[in-house]
Structure formats: structure tokens, C-alpha cells
Amino acid sequence: MTYLNFSFEHVLRFVSQKAINSYEPLVRHYHDVIHTRSGPGKNFLGWVDVPADDAELSRIKVVAEKVKNDSDVLLVIGVGGSYLGAHAAIEMLGDTFGYLGRKKGDIPEIIFTGHHLSATYNKELLRVLKEVDVSINVISKSGTTTEPGIAFRIFRAFLEEKYGEEEAAKRIYVTTDKSEGALKTLAVEKGYETFVIPDDIGGRYSVLTPVGLLPMAVSGIDIDAAIAGARQAAEDLATPALEDNIAYQYAVIRQLLYEKNYTTEILSNYDPKLRYFSDWWVQLFGESEGKDGKGIFPAVANFPTDLHSLGQYIQDGRRQLFQTILRVDEEAETVVVENDEANLDGLNYLVGKSLNEINRVASDAALKAHVDGGVPNMVVDLPRLDAYTFGYIVYFFKKACAMSGYLLEVNPFDQPGVEAYKTNMFEMLGKPGYVSEEKLR
Ligand code: PA5
């Protein structure tokens, strides 16, 4: 029994149970490869055992308390795996409109930047930050990534001007490598408090390290519960037996669908709180598998919103799509449709029904229509949205992604393709060491 419910009855029209079962030996093989850390990317499997250093966790909580007491805003600067996980957790578990009417000492607003190069966004942000108390958490494993590097330069200067260099230094928290990179050098030079990203955990697998845990703790999320959820998932998904391991079942079905030319997977959610979780998932699978001319293209749909836009294509467009539906069983709040005597909107047939019930009917109706329209569907049901579930589902997808990448015969832990644009950009901007021979002549 696992904490999540994963069902694939709606793919069996497209791939047979026999075909799924035939993957058992290969899954056992790659399970060993993952657990003995002997395959491609073997030095990046630190996340498998969900490590957490108690002293580091305590320090995260102390800093979170300080930031809560001295800041209205925590500015999180990072890109890719250095911000998507925290963003996913905070949107999933935080109070969506909590920033309205917040008072001193309440949970700070968490704002993300450094994942783009928009002057307008950053200028607007600087204007707002002038009026409030701010701390910064800058996150970069390499410590040399350009986009967050530039943002940190801008907002560090802002903080130093606002508070003076000494006080600014007490409001800057750096999450980076233990010894390497420009960010580490800067942190040592300026005396910033630093948190370490373990060597053996890559960016997109790092949300349950200080990368994600510090912003999550500042936003009031129970980080111990998130780790406990991930550890439970690690235990539940430690079996090599395909019939008992839902992460491996998900990986195998993806592979079988891919072999049948279903080359786009849509992660469809039914709650706006899962929007950024879907972005985290896109990075996890897109960057882990899209290489060597191979890979499923990961896409996102936010339902019911997108049933009124993408829904047409999903139902009726080119048949290369399959869907994984994320649903939530138990909502934290209940809203019920009330009676309206006049019934001018004609909605009295729904009186007494909760939004959650109606949402479930919308998902059942869309699922049936999409399967009838030729789209294989898998379903992941989360019991509720809390920190424990966040840790669990994050681990589920990470383990599935490791297996899925190996089944596809790629290294799920590197991202060589990301370098191509960087090299061009450095060359075009004239970064020392990157200027082309032609330009030097
Ligand atoms: O998954 C990855 O490794 C990447 O997406 C990185 O997280 C991203 O490129 C940011 O890198 P860094 O943390 O070194 O700034």
C-alpha cells in the first residue's frame, strides 16, 4: 500500500498489461543500477536516501524565524532547479492571498527573481521593495549562473544602499556549493550566512535540501513533515518488484507509450495551487530525458481553465499526446453551492454540492472524453495538499524519472544541452575566455 493512489486503467486500451509486465527484468536491472549507484550520472544519486543534516535543518529554522521577524519580503534569487521546487511548495501549501493585509511578524511574502532578465519586472520590484523590509536568499549550485548572478548584483546593491553594508550582510543568505564558485567566494568575502548544496544532488533533484527548505521554512511550511513524506516514499518505492512499485509502473508506461509514438505528456492538474508544481515536474522530466535526440516532451495543463483552451487540441488534435492527471482527494476548505430562489442562472440543480465534488465530476468527465478521443490517461490522486504529501509526490516523480531516463537509455542527471545557449550568449556578450577567434583578429 502506498500513500498515493496511482491508476493506469485508462492506458490499457493503448498498451497491454502483458507489455507492462514484460519490463519486469529490465526494471529490476535499473533498480540495482540506481541503488548501487553504478549507471550514468552515478555521482548524482544522493537524493535517493533523502539525506538531511539535523544541524543544517536547525539552522534553517533559526534563519526562517529571524527572517520572519525582520522582513516583509524574502527575495529568492535562482533559476531552474534552484527555484522551481521552492516555488512549487510555496504555491501548493501557502495561503494564496496571504500577502494582502499581512502585518509585521506574519509570514513574509516570498518573491522570486533571477530566473529571467526582465528589466521592467526587476524595476517594478525594486520600487515595491523600497517600502518594506527585505532579506535575500540567493541560490546557485555552480555559483556562476548568469541570470541569478546579475539579479543578485542588482538586489545586493539595493540592500546595501537601503541598510548599509553591515546590516545588508546580515540579511543575505547564500545557498551554494561547499567550496566552489563565484557565489561562494563572495559569501566568504562578505561574511554572508551560507547553506550547502550536497555535491551528489543535482539542481532539479534538490528541493529537499537547503535549496528548497530555506524558502519553504520562511513561508511557514513544516519542513520536517516534507522530509518525512519523502522518506516514507523512499521506503514505499524501494522495492524492485514492478507490480508493487508505482513509480516504476509510471516510468514503464511512459516508455511503452513513447515507443508507440506518444511523444508529448501533459501533466494536468485541477487546482491552481498545483500550477508551479507542474513547472517543477516539467523541468525534472524535460531536462532529465530530452537528450541524444530522444525524450517525451513534458507539457502542462491547468484544468478546468485550460479545458476551455487546450482542451480542444487534447480532445481532437494530432494524436501524439498522453496525459497524467494530478488530483487532490480532500480539499482544505469547503465551498457549497447555495440555493437562490430566483434561479436566474439556472444553477439550482447544483444546490448542496461542494466545489470539490463538482471539480471531481469535471475531471471524470474530461478523462472519459479524452480517453474516448484517443488520449491515454494515467491518474495520480494525492490525499491532500500538505507538506508531507509534497515530500512524497516529489520523491515519487524523482524516482520515476531516474527509472524512466535509464529505460530510455539516457543519463537522467546531466543537462549538456543547456550549455549550447550559454556558450553562444557568453561569446556574444564578450565574456573573457569565450570570445571567438574571428573577433579577436
Ligand atoms: O537541474 C539543474 O541542474 C539546472 O536546472 C540548474 O538547477 C540550473 O541551471 C541552475 O543552476 P545553478 O544552481 O548552478 O545556478
Features:
binds 5-phosphoarabinonic acid; 5-stranded parallel sheet; alpha/beta; Rossmann fold; 441 residues; 17 helices
How many strand elements? 10
Mean pLDDT: 96
Helix content: 40-55%
Strand/helix succession: EHHHEHEHEHHEHEHHHEHEHEHEHHH
Distance between the termini: 67 Å
- Count of distinct structural domains: 3
CATH class of the largest domain: Alpha Beta
Going by CATH, the homologous superfamily of the largest domain would be Glucose-6-phosphate isomerase like protein, domain 1
* Architecture (CATH level 2) name of the largest domain: 3-Layer(aba) Sandwich
The dominant shape is globular
Strand order, sheet with most strands: 1-10-9-7-8
Ligands present: 5-phosphoarabinonic acid
> Structural class given helices, strands, pairing?
alpha/beta
* Low-pLDDT runs: none
Determine the number of helices (DSSP H or I, runs of at least 4 residues).
17
Describe this structure in words.
This protein is of the alpha/beta class and 441 residues long. It folds into 3 domains: 203 residues, Rossmann fold; 175 residues, Rossmann fold; 25 residues, no CATH class. Helices cover 45% and strands 12% of the residues. It has 17 helices and 10 strands. A 5-stranded mixed β-sheet has the order 1-10-9-7-8, with helices on both faces. β7, α12 and β8 form a beta-alpha-beta unit. α3 runs parallel beside α9 and α4 runs antiparallel to α12. The N and C termini lie far apart (67 Å). The model has no long low-confidence stretch (mean pLDDT 96). 5-phosphoarabinonic acid binds next to loops.
